[in-house]
Amino acid sequence: MPLPILPSRWTTSFGIETPAALLGRTISATPPSFGKWRPRFLAQTALRLSLLLLPFLFAAPAPAAAPPLPEDIQKGITAFFNLLKQQKVDEAYELILVNTRIRGREDDVKALRKQTREAIATYGPILGFETIEQRRVGMSLMQIVCLSWSENFPLRWRFSYYRPGDRWRLLDIFVDDKIGELFDTRAVRVQPMDAPSAP
Question: Which CATH code fits 71-180?
Fold first, then answer.
């Protein structure tokens, strides 16, 4: 049976349109086969594709960025730490406690001021600060964790806020030097050699 007359152009199995004269093969109605090279070609293609796709399979999703702090809270915390940098502890607490219920608990405020003065005396003057964490519970509770830098040791500050309507209100301030709690506590603990092993 004679082969049909092909046009001067012929489409290969890869979709490339090539002049029939340049193929260098006998033109037939079926595309050329790979013969013994087909398994090797498929294996190489599969390997190349897997190497290209491998990073996408194991890539961890980027953590979602925390929403920016409300402007009034950011300004209040920044002004608070700027006053502490100048060692104006009383003025710093007067500023941060404006329009809060904490201000009415005079014994607690005195204890907090005393604790702050002792921390500055022990660890050195406050040189600066950074916000390291922001946690939200629902839409109306938020805790902001800051780290203040001192010459000898950093301090952790936790500011808790509540928003019953359209304004955030400071509920609590807590300061400590337990910096180790900022790190992952699930790390493997090494038991001392002379201690008895737990049952």
Answer: 3.10.450.630
